[in-house]
Write a structure and sequence with these properties.
By secondary structure, this protein is of the alpha+beta class. The chain has one domain. The protein has one helix and four strands. A four-stranded antiparallel beta sheet has the order 2-1-3-4, with helices on one face. The longest helix is centred in the middle third of the chain and has 11 residues. It is globular. The mean pLDDT is 94.
């Protein structure tokens, strides 16, 4: 398993929160974060590599 950093980003582009998750792959990390249905944009990072940018959940 790998550790991924998950950052919440407000509309001004500032990081407002962060957490670490464990996942087997980039795809698993993306699936897990999408399931959270976060109210802010979320970015997933693997060390210094951005894995994904997920828009805020609308709904």
């Amino acid at each position: 398993m790998k550790f991924y950093h998950v950052y919440s980003v407000d509309p001004q582009g500032s990081i407002t929160g962060d957490r670490t998750i464990r996942a087997n792959s980039d795809d698993d990390a993306i699936f897990e974060v999408r399931a959270m249905q976060r109210a802010l944009e979320t970015q997933i990072w693997d060390k210094d590599r951005r894995v994904a940018r997920i828009p805020a959940h609308q709904g």
